[in-house]
Write a structure and sequence with these properties.
Elements: H1 10-16, H2 21-34, H3 43-51, H4 59-68, H5 82-86, H6 88-92, H7 98-111, H8 117-126, H9 141-161, H10 167-183, H11 188-211, H12 215-232, H13 235-251, H14 255-269, H15 275-291, H16 295-310, H17 326-339, H18 343-356, H19 362-378, H20 382-395, H21 402-415, H22 422-433
Length: 434
């Protein structure tokens, strides 16, 4: 029987069985890959389904769930009919007009537009904000859903295609999110969701700026996210903002600032119950210490990172941390050793990162392989470095990332003295052509 509004979805909970929410979310992501679908499922999403907050999944999730449980309709999974859920805003909140409800559906479709990165980005900018007068006078649940879905969609597109094609377009839904926040919400719980959603969107857009080399823009977006977190008293968002600020500071050569931002993030995250988040922030701190040349402090932070990581996943892990697994840990540790001048050791970690990364996330595969190429070149293994660089060039056909291209250019420069090697010469020729 379908779940009634706000009642727990006990049917879906039974289907999860003995798996933890995080484990079940991993099964959902794996099933999505099997049918060529893309969903950003995590423990929090599973919790929202089981609590009844998500009464009906979007079409992508519906296809995945039908694949996981053949022969079952949405009602058999404990969900409400789609048509009844679509009409909930108008039924529950009499203040918006019926046209506003339709506009909210347009808003959602614009946020969740699929297809290539270019098409989706264009849809985000042209459809979503073609006329800000179409936004409702007061935001409801559907608007909060749309903002949260926008964050997921941007993250998924970045994982697949890199930041360059997305950044300028993704700034448009961010402005809409803050316009909705400024307009106010029908409920306090909705306003809280909008604050968190807008802040997470600011971090996501900041990351797109960061990864595409627009460091000043990134700093501004991260600061906006941090301010939103402070206003909303949202420690999870605050920890996320500090994590990205530490990463940016490291990339900008402000190592002391990276350390302080990472430490502030750990203070914010202590009450959240997520060892994996603490692990990531310890890695951010380690990167700052490495940049300062403080090997002892770096090793101490790395030890904390490994200890926290070994505690495993938790239902409290934030949704945005879906990227953080063993591969990312190896990559961040590789950067520490590289900063400390231990390039052979860095290369071992970078190789593990590239080997462990799910090939579905093309951007990260390209990033880790570019790190590997750079470390090998500096470790005195030019032929291996050229081979890794060639793999990155293959991936650049589908990944647009200024960060990756810059790293590869540095590697090419390092390999110039070895250009008489056939493999190195071939890589340098190909890189120059690209």
């Amino acid at each position: 029987m379908a779940a009634s509004p706000h009642s727990p979805n006990s049917t879906f909970r039974r289907l999860r069985g003995q798996h933890s929410p995080a484990e079940f979310a991993a099964l959902v992501r794996r099933a999505a890959k099997e049918i060529g679908e893309t969903v950003s499922c995590d423990a929090r999403y599973i919790g929202r389904v089981e609590s009844g907050e998500i009464r009906c999944p979007n079409y992508a999730y519906e296809r995945v769930f039908r694949h996981m449980f053949p022969g079952r309709a949405l009602a058999d999974l404990g969900f409400s009919p789609r048509e009844s859920v679509r009409g909930r805003s108008a039924q529950r909140d009499p203040s918006p007009s019926s046209s506003s409800a339709k506009e909210s559906d347009v808003l959602r479709r614009a946020f969740m537009a699929g297809g290539s990165a270019t098409v989706a980005a264009a849809t985000l900018s042209l459809t979503l904000l073609g006329d800000t007068r179409r936004l409702p006078s007061r935001a409801g649940e559907s608007e909060a859903d749309a903002v949260e879905d926008a964050v997921r969609q941007i993250r998924l597109l970045d994982d697949r295609h890199g930041a360059d094609a997305l950044y300028r377009r993704a700034a448009e839904p961010l402005r809409t999110a803050y316009a909705l926040l400024d307009a106010g919400a029908t409920r306090q719980s909705t306003e809280d969701r909008l604050h968190s959603g807008a802040g997470e969107l600011a971090v996501s857009v900041g990351w797109l700026a960061h990864d595409s080399g627009r460091f000043d823009d990134a700093r501004s977006h991260y600061a906006e996210a941090l301010a939103t977190a402070r206003v909303a008293r949202d420690p999870g968002l605050e920890a996320h903002a500090f994590s990205n600020m530490a990463f940016l500071a490291r990339d900008c050569g402000r190592s002391r600032e990276a350390v302080r931002a990472a430490q502030a993030g750990r203070r914010a995250a202590r009450s959240l119950g997520s060892p994996r988040l603490l692990s990531l922030l310890a890695l951010r701190e380690a990167g700052g210490w490495a940049g300062l040349g403080d090997r002892r402090a770096c090793e101490e932070a790395l030890a904390r990172a490994h200890t926290d990581f070994s505690r495993g996943e938790s239902d409290a892990d934030p949704e945005w941390m879906s990227f953080f697994g063993q591969a990312e840990l190896e990559s961040l540790e590789a950067r520490c050793w590289s900063s400390l001048g231990e390039h052979a050791r860095a290369a071992r970690h970078a190789r593990r990162a590239a080997d462990l990364q799910d090939p579905h996330f093309a951007r990260n595969v390209a990033l880790y392989t570019a790190e590997l190429a750079g470390d090998l070149a500096r470790a005195g293994a030019p032929d291996e470095a050229a081979w890794a660089g060639g793999r990155v060039l293959d991936l650049l056909a589908e990944v647009q990332s200024t960060r990756v291209r810059s790293m590869l250019s540095e590697t090419a420069g390092t390999l110039v003295p070895h250009q008489r090697s056939p493999r190195v010469g071939a890589f340098l020729t190909r890189h120059a052509a690209v």
